[in-house]
Design goal:
This protein is α+β, with helices and mostly antiparallel strands and about 200 residues long. It is about 40% helix and about 15% strand. A hairpin with a 5-residue loop joins strand 8 and strand 9. The structure holds zinc ion.
């Protein structure tokens, strides 16, 4: 991608290749980053207490990015920037030569970091056992597995304590929190520590 392309991806709605192989419209990467900062995206599920869940990894990326953008502006122009981050980054499209090459690297680094953060959410574990509520293992015309277990703490990048796991049945809608998962451990005969390998 050229510098102009990368600035476009960061600051404007753009086309992106979906898992299905189709191109879909995606919000600006910086908007996705902002959304991730104060939502459960890439954090797993909240405690349900109604409080705002803050994704500390997203917040750190956003703060580092802002600081770097302001520093680069100062390096290039000798003046301090006052205004919107998006406008600052858009203005970089006008640079040419060495600065353009350098900014191409900077903006690509941001895009890679943000995308890696947004995609770091691990897929849930799909244990191959019947749902204790509806007794089904699969549901729907595609025969998808009923149960999903969210066990990964994306913020800490490790397996969450079992008490904060959440299991759901996509077939009947039943949901269990970590304190009600005895059936899961009994049925799957899976000690906590090997769950990551099983998934
Ligand atoms: Zn069920």
């Amino acid at each position: 991608m050229s510098l102009a392309d990368q600035i476009h991806v960061l600051t404007s709605e753009h086309l992106t290749l979906a898992d299905t192989g189709e191109y879909i419209k995606a919000p600006p990467i910086l908007v996705q980053l902002r959304a991730a900062c104060t939502s459960t995206i890439a954090v797993g599920r909240g405690s349900g207490g109604g409080g705002m869940v803050v994704n500390s990894k997203a917040v750190k990326i956003e703060n580092d990015l802002k600081e770097q953008a302001l520093n680069e502006h100062y390096e290039m122009t000798g003046t301090e920037y006052r205004g919107k981050l998006v406008d600052l980054i858009k203005s970089w499209a006008e640079f040419e030569g060495d600065w353009a090459t350098y900014l191409e690297k900077v903006t690509l680094g941001w895009i890679d970091d943000i995308r890696a953060m947004l995609e770091s959410k691990r897929p849930p574990w799909r244990p191959s056992i019947p749902c204790p509520a509806c007794s089904q293992r699969f549901y729907g015309p595609e025969r998808e597995p009923c149960l999903s277990v969210h066990y990964w703490d994306d913020d800490a990048e490790t397996i969450a304590p079992p008490s904060s796991w959440i299991a759901k049945c996509d077939g009947c809608g039943a949901e269990w929190n970590g304190n009600n998962l005895k059936w899961l451990r009994a049925a799957s005969d899976t000690p906590d520590k090997v769950v990551a390998r099983v998934s």
